[in-house]
Amino acid sequence: MQLSDLINNLPPYHFADAKKKIAERRAAGVDVISLSMGDPDLPAPQSVIDRLCLEIQNTENHRYPEYFGMRALHLAFAAWFKRRFDVRLTPERDMLPLLGSKEGLAYVAAAVLDAGDISLIPDPYYPVYVTGSTSVGAIPYMLPLREQNSYLPDLDSIPADVLAKARLLWLNYPNNPTAACADRAFFEHAVAFAQRHNLVIVHDMAYAEVYFDDYRPMSILQVPGASEVAVELHSLSKTYNMAGFRVGMLVGNAELVNAVGRLKSNIDSGMFRPIQYAAIEALNLPASWLEERNAIYRRRRDLLVEGCNALGMRAHKTTAGLYVWATVPGGYSARDFANWLFDQTGVFLTPGTNFGDAGEGYVRISMTAPEERIATALKRMKEALS
Ligand SMILES: Cc1ncc(COP(=O)(O)O)c(C=O)c1O
Predict the structure, then answer these.
(1) Ligand 1 centre and the CA of 366: distance in Å?
(2) Which residues line ligand 1 (CB under 6 A)?
(3) Do residues 43 and 50 make contact, with C-beta atoms less than 8 angstroms apart?
(4) Which atom of ligand 1 is least distant from the CA of 247?
């Protein structure tokens, strides 16, 4: 069959390949420890599960859902956003439920970019920023994220001829894969920059609620005037251990939110109502639920950061996000090291280059495994490396 250029130019999704590789190795009897995907191993909150079970019994909920989400979900999200960021969103106007934030990223790209436009993408990046852009014919322009710049893009170094054609700027803090965070000064600069150069900012905040110690990531919408130029994506996947439920939210610039709603309603038919009720339950959880969950991740982070540094894999103590970003030891490329380690130990890490060329020299280690498995992984790594 002759397939489209879009498909022919689309790379396979790394994590789909990774899952296959892990399954094959497990089938061959290897005790694989996957510290690869950011797929929370901890359970969804019990109240969420109970509400889902309750609502699924109501056959009214089996019909087509609302295209743009139930009002009750909008109200719950707006209340959560006000509590969390002290920003007031207007239900229905400023927000759109998504079947996970991943699809929202692709829809935003399609709603903003035309063929030949430039899409400004910090590198390393979450893969959809690139494929969402290229699938509508836009041209990625990479902004390398360097350790010495605290993994923030240097917006002022973008050449004028690139800026003239640029329409979209992607940002993602807390960052995947580097786990870097951005401060208010950076977001203020980015908003002013977007206003000056007529850019749309997409801020991907999938890791908004995984944070440690006293740190609290901020929303770009806390910057005055941000909603003129920016949208932000939220997700219940990492926030409430609900990755399989597929609940995300697009918030911010009302015109763009509306445009994405128009596009999306032409393609899918909304979110299963019992899942929307379950999402409402999650958004109403007390802060103590997050504190307890984040305390678990904090212990895992400490274990991993200390363990990596002891192995000569330099890693910073992160303040947010699900990952540790560590240097590759011994002159290997990121991919060769990850493959070698998997063969030697059954420990599966993600090479930094899966997220772009700027990820060379690093591996991303996910904290989504219990402490004893992380300790076993580190022990195996130590044996292999010595
Ligand atoms: C940076 C980033 N954005 C978005 C997503 C998508 O999350 P979801 O579609 O589960 O909301 C992920 C998932 O790993 C991610 O790492």
Answers:
(1) 13
(2) 38, 100-102, 126, 172, 176, 204, 206, 235, 237, 243, 248
(3) no
(4) 11
Q: What angle do CA 46, 51, 57 make, to 5 degrees?
A: 135
> What torsion do the CA atoms of 264, 269, 275, 281 make, to the nearest 10 degrees?
60
- Which among 350, 325, 355 is positioned nearest to 130, based on CA atoms? 355
At 75-108, the pLDDT tens digits run: 999 999 999 999 999 999 999 999 999 999 999 9
Residue nearest to atom 3 of ligand 1 (CA): 206
pTM tops 0.85, yes or no: yes
**The dihedral of CA 369, 372, 373, 374: what is its sign?**
positive
Dist. CA 222–CA 201, nearest whole Å: 14
Give residue for tokens 């959560």. 80
d(CA 110, CA 125): 18
Q: What is the mean pLDDT of the chain?
A: 96
Query: One-letter amino acid identity for 150?
Result: S
Question: In this structure, are residues 172 and 126 in contact, taking their beta carbons and an 8 Å threshold?
Answer: yes
Distance (angstroms) between ligand 1 centre and the Cα of 128 equals 9
Tokens coding 360: 């060379």
Atom of ligand 1 nearest to the CA of 102: 9
Q: How far is the CA of 200 from the centre of ligand 1 (A)?
A: 20
Closest residue by Cα to residue 118 from 59, 198, 215:
198
Q: Which atom of ligand 1 is nearest to the CA of 101?
A: 11
- Tell me the per-residue pLDDT of 20-47, one tens digit each, with 9 for 90 and over: 889 999 999 999 999 999 999 999 999 9
